Amino acid sequence: MSKIAIYPGTFDPITFGHIDVIKKSLKLFDKIVVGVSDESNKNYLFSSEERIQIVNKALFKDLKLNKKKIKVVSFGSLTTDLCKKYKSNIILRGLRAVSDFEYEFQLAGMNRKLNQNVETIFLMSDVENQIISSRFVKEIVKLKGDIKKFTTKSTIKSLKDKYE
C-alpha cells in the first residue's frame, strides 16, 4: 500500500519554501497531493485555475519533478475530506518560524478532531527559504524588486504578467 500525503495551501504563488516542503516530503511518501485551496472567502491574486497552472509549471517544467509522485488538485472542502478522497491519513504543513507554530498547532488539532485517523506532519524548509512568504513575494514584485531567490522562473513570469 502506498503512502499518500496531502499538502494543502493557497500557493498564491508557490515559493521555494513550499517547494522545499514538497521535495522533503517526496523522500518520506510515495505520492504527494498538492491541494490548491479555492476557498472563495480569501482575496487571491491568482484564480484557482491560475494557481494550479503556476504550481504545475513550477514543479514539472522548471524543476522537472516526478509527475508520477505529485498530483496537483483544486479543493474547496475541508482538508480532512481531501484526505478521505485520496485515501490519505497524513496532512503536510510547512513551518517557517516559531510564529507559524501556534496557528498550525491549532489547525492540526482541529483536523484531528474532525478525523482522528489523520495526522499532521510539520516540515521545515531549508534555512535560506524560511523567511519567504507568498505575501512578501507579491509585494516585492509589485514594487519591481528581484524575486529570483524566492520562486521559479515560470512563477516569476506569471507574477510579472499579473502586475504589468
Describe the structure.
- This protein is α/β, with parallel strands linked by helices and about 160 residues long.
- The protein has a single domain (about 5-164), classed as HUPs (Rossmann fold).
- Helices cover about 45% and strands about 20% of the residues.
- It is built from six helices and five strands.
- It has helices at about 15-25, 50-60, 80-85, 100-115, 135-140, 155-164, and strands spanning about 5-10, 30-35, 70-75, 90-95, 120-125.
- The chain has a five-stranded parallel sheet with strand order 3-2-1-4-5.
- Helix 2 (about 50-60) packs antiparallel against helix 6.
- It is globular and about 45 Å long.
| Broad structural category | alpha/beta
Low-confidence stretches: none
What is the overall number of helices? 6
Q: What is the spatial order of strands in the main beta sheet? A: 3-2-1-4-5
Listing every helix as H and every strand as E from the N terminus to the C terminus, the arrangement reads: EHEHEHEHEHH
Give the CATH topology: Rossmann fold
CATH homology-level superfamily: HUPs
% residues in beta strands: 15-25%
Rg, Cα atoms, Å: 15 Å
Number of strands: 5
Shape: globular
